[in-house]
């Protein structure tokens, strides 16, 4: 027998079902997601530490992260319980907003640990991101002006519509639309993708997963910026505010039907028509 727990929104429609409590996460064997890719991102957002394996059934329009057909749910759940499926550990990003005035939760002004500056202004809770962090100009008429630090060193000043910091999983999302590279989900890397930069030489780059990034709105910036995390928790960044971004030790174990490489290339061809064209005719 299975003890099934559901979210608040489901309990409201089906009051006889048991409600999921976040403190029970250590006792959860696996999560069933029914929807599109956004549903999987929502499930990731619920867990800020350990997250159980997720089996995702596609009822959306694209379904790049939801490999299972809903019509076969009984067979696939049975296969999962019997250990006949694969699990891919997808990297997440650990993010923290630091407000002007100093530090928050142990980060110093260079984005490094154990900071202890006077006048620190606590920011909101930390967030774990599966796809990307987006920092953009919002409704402001001016370009975004962002100072970008990597491991405490200033590496560039972004003057663009915005900046995307993504995981390999997020490489097939917003970053791809902005010209970023496709990255296999098992590659431990952080994507650094500008959005409509003001220089043609500003190309997307990949950084080691061990990098600690700090993206700051300069004190003398003409306007504020806006940050969102997997499309959620959108908040304004005033001049002097920063976002600290680093690798999260809590990955998302996503259940797949086959090994990840085969499934990833199949999804690229089926969903994005990657390199799909008629073959050249023989002479």
Task: Fill in the keyword field for this structure.
single chain, 283 residues, alpha+beta, 11-stranded antiparallel beta sheet, 3-stranded parallel beta sheet, 5 helices, 16 strands, globular
Determine Rg (CA atoms, Å). 21 Å
Could you tell me the mean pLDDT?
87
Helical region count? 5
Major sheet details: 11 strands, antiparallel
- What's the helix-strand series? EHEEHEEHEEEEEHEEEEEEH
Low-pLDDT ranges: 105-124
Name the shape in a single word: globular
Q: How much strand content do the residues show?
A: 35-45%
The tally of beta strands, per DSSP, is 16
Structural commentary:
The protein is of the alpha+beta class. The chain has five helices and 16 strands. It has helices at residues 8-13, 37-46, 73-81, 174-177, 260-272, and strands at residues 5-6, 18-19, 31-35, 54-58, 68-69, 86-98, 127-129, 132-136, 144-150, 153-166, 189-197, 205-208, 213-216, 225-229, 232-237, 242-256. The strands form three sheets. Strands 6, 7, 8, 9, 10, 11, 12, 13, 14, 15 and 16 form an eleven-stranded antiparallel β-sheet that branches. Strands 3-4-5 form a three-stranded parallel β-sheet, with helices on both faces. Strand 9 (144-150) and strand 10 (153-166) form a beta hairpin. The protein is globular and about 60 Å long. The termini are far apart.
